[in-house]
Amino acid sequence: MNETLVLGAVVYDAKVVTIWDGFQRWFAARDLLLDYVLYSNYDRQVEQLFAGAFHVAWNSPLAWLQAERVAESRGRTVEALAMRDTDQDLTSVIVVREDAPIARVEDLRGRRVGVGALDSPQATMIPLDHLARRGLLADHDFEVRRFDVLVGKHGDHIGGERDAAKALMSGEIDAACLTDANHLLFTQEGTLRRSRTRVLTQTEPYDHCNFTALDDAPRDLVQRFRSLLLAMRYDDPLVRPLLDLEGLKAWRPGRTQGYALLGAACERFGWLDPFLAHMADR
Amino acid sequence: MIPLPLDLGELGLDGGATVLLRAALGPLEAGQRVLVLGSAPSLALHLRAWARAEGHVCESPSPADHPPAGSLGAPPVAVLVRGDAPSARWRGAERAGDPTPAGVAEHAQARWGLCARGAKVEAGGPAFGFALSDKDTLWTDAAPDLYRAAAAAQWDPAIAIPWDAPRDHPAFVEAALVQVLTYLVENETAALLVPARFCAQVHPHFREIMQLLAIQAADEARHIEVFTRRALLGGGALGLSTAGGQASLLTLVEEGDFALASFLLSVLGEGTFIHLLGFIHMHAPDACSAEIMRLTAQDEVRHVAFGLSHLQRHASHDPGLRQRLRLATERRHDALRHTAGLNAEVFDALVLLAAGALNPEAIGRGHAAVARLQAQMDAGRRSRLRQLGFTKGDAETLSALHTRNFM
After folding, report:
1. Architecture of domain A92-202
2. Can you tell me the distance from the alpha carbon of B13 to that of B78, in angstroms, rounded to the nearest whole number?
3. What angle, rounded to 10 degrees, do the helices at A273-280 and A61-73 form?
4. Per-position DSSP letters for A166-177, written without gaps between them
5. Which positions in chain A touch B89 (Cβ < 8 Å)?
6. Mutating which of B25, B52, B81 best tests the A interface, going by the most A Cβ atoms within 10 A?
7. Do residue B14 and residue A89 have CB atoms under 8 angstroms apart?
8. A90 part of contact set with chain B, CB < 8 Å
9. What are phi and psi of B231, to 5 degrees?
C-alpha cells in the first residue's frame, strides 16, 4: 500500500470537513493518498506536528511562527510549502468614526481600541504592533477592548472583527482593527455604514496561512503533495468548489518574508513565550 | 502598454463599483491592465482586497500608468492586472441545448439541472436525478401550443361560474347531483396527483411538458374546488365514496410509468370523462352546474389532446409501447376484476339527473340516456385507441377492458 500523507488542520468552521474530504478525493484520483486529522486549536496542532502525529500542518501565520521558533530551539527546520494566493500581501486597518476627533494615530491616546481575538495576527497582534511602532503601547497609552471569538483559532473566524465593527458604530469603542478584506466586507454589508467611518491608518503588507512541514517529513510524499497543490487549476470543475470554499483561486509556493511583521509583534509583546515555554518542557 | 482607464468618480466598492470593475475587466485577456481612477474613501484599500479575492493583481499606479494630464477628473488609485480566474470558471461550460422548442435535446443531461434551456452551465454543478429525461418518452411538438392554449384558457371560479343562478329543481335531483359531484371530486383528485407526481420527474429541459403537467394539475385543483363548492350549495352533506371506486383510482395513482399512467389517465380516463361531463352539462338542473361542466370539460379536452399527442410520438419511436399499453390495461382490469366498478349510487344518480322526475317513463328515458352515454364513451375510447395505432379489434377489446368506474 502506498504511503499516506497525513495533514493536520484546525476546525475554524464545519466547512473544513467538506474541504478536506473533497481534497482527499481529488488527491486520490491522482494517486496520492491523503488523510487528515483535525484540531480545535493551533497550539495543539503545532504541538502534535512535533510529536509526529501528521506530516503537514495547515498553519495560521502565528502557528507558523510557533513551529519555526520551536524548530529553531531544537536545531530543526520547517518549510512553508505552499499558501493561497489570498494569503499574500494582506493589510490591516484601524478604523474610526467619521466624526471622531481622531485625525492622527497619536489621537488614539487614552481612547478605547477594539481588536479581534486575543490570538488573531491580523485583527490584534499586527495592528497593536503597528500602533506601538508609532509610540502608542496597548493597555498603557490606550485601552484595548478585546472581541474574543473562538480563541485558539488565531482569528480564522471573523466574528471578533465583526463584533468590533459593531461596537465602533455603537460608540462602545473609538477605533476598530480589521483586515482590509473585512473592511470591504463590512462596508458592503452595511455593518460599517457608508461615510460614517474612515480609515485612520493601514499596516504594511503581511502574509497569512501556509502548509508547514518539518524536516523529517517524508520528502517525496510531501513534494508530491506540494506539486499537486500547485497544479490545482481553477478551471477544474471538480476542485473549483473546494477552492471557493477555502477562499483562493490558486495555490502559490510558500514564502516566509511576509511573516516579519507578525514576528516583530510577537517579539515586542512576548506573545510566543508561553507556548515556547510549554514546548520546552516536552 | 498603457492601461485602459476606468473612472469610478465618487463611487466606492461598497456602492456598486464592483459592477463597473467586472465590466471593464471581463472582456480583457489575462495580464491586461486597467487604471482605476476615483475619489471614494478607502478606494485603494478596497481595490486591493477585492482584487486579491477575485484573482486579479492590484498594483500602485506608476507615473507611466497615468493617462495624459487633464484627460480624467478623478485621481489614479490603482492598476488592476486581470487574472485568469474569472475566465477559468467558465472554461468547460456548455450550453444546455437550444432555447427553442425545435431544438430540444434527445436526452437532457443531469448536469444541466434546473437551468433555462439554452443557458450556459458552469461545469462541476450538481447532477439532478430526473427520471424522465428523454425526448422520446416525453415530447410532443404540440406541447408549446397546448401550453399556450391552457394558459390562455384559465378561468376564475369566482367570476366564471354563476353561483347565484336559480335552483328550483326537486330535492331528489339535487341529491343525485351531489352524489355525482362527490364522485367527480375523488376522480379529479386522482387526475391532479398523477400529473403532479410526474411533473417533478420531468427534466426541466422539456419545460413545455413540465408546464403542461403543472397547469393540468392546477386545472384539476380548480375542478375539485368548483365541484365541491357546487355540491355544498344545497346545504346538505356530500355523497358516498365506495371502496370499489377508490380501488380503481388506486391502480391509476400507483402506476409509476409515465407513458402507462398518461395512457390510463388521459387517453382512457379523462377521454371518457369528457363524455360524462357533457352528459351532466346536458342534464344539469341549474345554470351553475351546467357552466361548471362546460368549463371543466374544456380543460379535460386539452389534457386528452396532450396525452394522445405525446403517446403518438412515443409509439412512433418505440414499437413496443403499444404492447405495454395493452398489458397495462389488462393488468388494471385484472386487478379490478373483483371490485364493484361504478357504484350503483352514481349510476342511479346519472339516471335520475337525465330523468328529472320519479316516474317510470322518465326513469326509462334517463336509463336509456345513460346507456347511450356509455356507448359514446366506448366509441370515444375506441377512436382514441385507433389514433394511437391500435387495430380496430384491439381498440374494441381494450376499450371494453377499461374500468367500469370511467376514470
Report:
1. 3-Layer(aba) Sandwich (3.40)
2. 13
3. 40
4. HHHHHTS-SEEE
5. 234-235, 240
6. B52
7. no
8. yes
9. -65, -30
Q: How far is Cα A249 from Cα A170, in angstroms, rounded to an integer?
A: 36
pLDDT tens-place string over residues A29-55:
999 999 999 999 999 999 999 999 999
* CB proximity A237 to B under 8 Å: yes
Is residue B382 within 8 A of residue B399, CB to CB? The reply is: yes
Tell me which fold the domain A4-87+208-280 belongs to: D-Maltodextrin-Binding Protein; domain 2 (3.40.190)
DSSP class of residue A121 equals I
Where are the CATH 3.40.190.10 domain residues in chain A? 4-87+208-280, 92-202
Please give the order of strands across the beta sheet that includes B4-7: B4-7, B33-37, B76-81, B57-59
pLDDT of residue B72: 57
Which residues 145-184 on chain A approach chain B with CB closer than 8 angstroms?
Answer: 179-181, 183-184
Nearest to A265 by CA among A103, A155, A174: A155
Burial class (CB in 10 A: 0-12, 13-18, 19+), A114: buried
| Mean predicted confidence (pLDDT) in A60-73 | 98
User: Measured on CA atoms in the order A37, A41, A47, A50, is the torsion positive or negative?
Assistant: positive
CA–centroid distance for A200 within its chain: 23
The model's pLDDT over A256-270, given as tens digits with 9 standing for 90+, comes to: 999 999 999 999 999
- Written as one letter, the residue type at B20 is L
C-alpha span between B296 and B179 (Å, rounded): 17
For residue A9, give the nearest of A157, A116, A153 by alpha carbon.
A153
Q: Report d(CA A121, CA B33) in Å as an integer.
A: 32
Q: Quick one: pLDDT band at residue B70, thresholds 50, 70, 90? A: low
Q: Is B45 in Cβ contact with A187 (below 8 Å)?
A: no
Whole-angstrom CA distances from A228 to A233, A243, B92 are: 10, 14, 21
- In three-state form (DSSP H/G/I as H, E/B as E, the rest C), the secondary structure along B39-108 is CCCCHHHHHHHHHHHHCCEEECCCHHHCCCCCCCCCCEEEEEECCCHHHHCCCCCEECCCCCHHHCCCEC
Q: What is the pLDDT of residues B159-212, one digit of tens each?
A: 999 999 999 999 999 999 999 999 999 999 999 999 999 999 999 999 999 999
